[in-house]
Structure formats: C-alpha cells, structure tokens
C-alpha cells in the first residue's frame, strides 16, 4: 500500500507525468491540456477503495438481518439512509464548489467514511447502524461530485473516457466489497468491518496528493469557467434533456437496486444457495457492471452518447423479462449481460448532462451521482416492502419491465456541444 501511495504522489507532483504525447498532440494543438493519466488513475483508485467500503454494507445484509432480526423493510431502510444522505448532500456540495473551489474537501470527506466504518463494526443497536451508514453516505456526498470534477479537469477533452476511468474504479470496488466481506466479515463477524478502515486511511493519503494537484490547477478551472458563463443550448432544450436523463436514471438504478440489495436473497430463496455462494454471484454481477462502465464512456466519445444511452437501457429489456423464469445457470448468464449493457449508459448520461451545462459541472455531477444513490435507496426501500408482502421472486417479475422506459431516449436531442465530440 505504501508503494502505491508513494507512486501516486510522485506522479501527481509532476504535472506532466502520465501524459501520452502521441495521443494528445491534436488536443494540444487545439489549445486543450493533455490527458492527465496519473490524476485519473488516482481518483479511480480511490473510487475503488471508496465503493469497496460502501459495498460491504450490502454484502453483510444477511448477517445484519440475523443479528438484529430485521425485516426486509428494515434492510431497505439501511440502504435508504445511506443513499439519501449521499444523494441529498451531493448537489449541495456541487453547487458550493461551483462557486468556491475546495480542493482539500476530498480527504475530509473520506474521514467521514472512516468514522462510519468504525461505528458500523461496533454498533450495538439498529439506530446506531443507521447513523453509521449515514456517516459513510456523507463521505460519498463529498467524494463523488468533486472527484468527477477532477476527472473532467484531467480528461484533456476526452470526457467520456475520463468518466469511464473514474467510474470503473467504483464498479470494481462494489464488486470487491462482497468478496472481501464474504472472506472476512461473514466468516469472522461484524467487528472485522473495522479492518476496512485501513482502506479509508490509504484513500485519505492519496486524496491529499490529488487535492494538491487540484489546488495547483484552480486558475485553469477558473479560466475555463469564464468561457462557459452561459449554457451552450437553449433553456427549453436543456430542461427537456435533463428531465429525460433523470427518467432514464430512474429506470437504470431502480432495476439495479433490485439486484444489488436483494440478489443474494433471491438466489438463496429460489435456488437454495448458501449465503457465501450467493455473495460470490453478487460479485460476478457487479464485475459485469464494472465492465459495462469501462466501455460505455469511450464508445460514447466515438459514436455519440445518445446511441449508447438508447441501446444500453432499452436493449436489456428482453433479458430482464426473461430473468425471473430461468434456472440458475441462465440466471447468472443473464445477470452478466444485463450488468454489462445497463452499466454502459452511466458514463454517457453523466457526460451528456455535463455537456448541456458546462458552467455547472459540480452541481450536475452531484445531482446525477446523488440521483443514482437516492434512486437506489428509494428502490431498495420500496422493493423491500413489496418483497415482504409478495415475495422476492415477484420483485424481479415487476422490475423486469423498467427498462422499457428507455423508449424515452427518442426525445434526447441530436446535438454536439461546441468544440467537443458527440
């Protein structure tokens, strides 16, 4: 870990480190800064740590359910508490940092995550569990909008690529969390959640170096902001586009909530799998989500973001409709396809929204990342009530129709931001 941190520090201290001159010659000739691969790698690496720590919460749900005798609704309320804390604060953080740069807010936010993990490992009651996950949510509310801003600043104009690199870290972390939880927490007990605090400490160290780079490039950010005082598109077009993107986010994340929060219970109930086996299959699905995130941004840079959004959300409808009616092998296979295709939309959606309002990068990033958390939390709570009353299988039968909302992508305008790619 020390080697990783020192390597990251040396890269970030050199403003030219990590750049690939042959790939950025055109951008430099056009007056754009080169792609800062070291900075993108740093924020993506911390995203791995951040979301790995968060996904431990999901992975230990069966353990918490047994230890505290929780209902499915109470399980969903844990997710709701975490997601709402993050979602409500993220746009606020984004609006504040749009007006005043706070580069060192990143390591401060990670301190909230560290305190939440330590409390989660020892919390003796359900209310303190909720407080612990709320603290972890506060850490996310700072990390995501500001790190998304840093990724865009370091992109060298390759916005979709930068968002994919940043987001892949989160997806990998979400996939690693259940695996580590199965090997440590589910095996040795909830008190071992505290060991994940070491990842938070490492994240703080790396983010201190990212914040140093950010503080050295504040003038560059202010210069870009003065050239984007007004949105490049008419207000009605912006409002319609943002509204459609939000509906598509609802479709995507409500469906993801049905898998991330209840997939283990579904596999255990439907196919009689053990807790450990179900947790490993959840990790397989989350790895598929990571793969989809990695390819979505670069493809959007190349062929256009609308095409990626259209295909990724509406395109999974046949697979989601089939999922509740097949055996275990097909369930695992379909979940992989669904994860890859559905996740490819998120980088395209984020960059599409940022391109519509380039003068409000923090607010837009916070709003859409926050919306993803909030919809996931709301979906978990609502679906928990449905599962309590009608069974976990019924949840998947109903959620199978959500991707059909992808038809609304037809209302997205065919526009190309000035000076940008598709």
TrEMBL record:
Entry-linked InterPro entries: MFS (IPR011701), MFS_dom (IPR020846), MFS_trans_sf (IPR036259)
Keyword Transmembrane in record: yes
Keyword field contains Protein transport: no
Keywords of the record: Membrane, Transmembrane, Transmembrane helix
One GO CC term on file: plasma membrane
GO MF term (any one): transmembrane transporter activity
Bilayer-spanning residue ranges: 39-64, 70-89, 192-215, 242-263, 275-296, 308-326, 332-354, 366-387, 393-412
Annotated spans, Disordered: 1-20
Compositionally biased residues, Polar residues: 1-12
Pfam families listed in its UniProt record: MFS_1 (PF07690)
Domain Major facilitator superfamily (MFS) profile: 39-418
Gene3D superfamilies: MFS general substrate transporter like domains (1.20.1250.20)
PANTHER family hit by this protein: FOSMIDOMYCIN RESISTANCE PROTEIN
Record-given protein name: MFS transporter, FSR family, fosmidomycin resistance protein
Organism, as annotated: Rhodanobacter glycinis
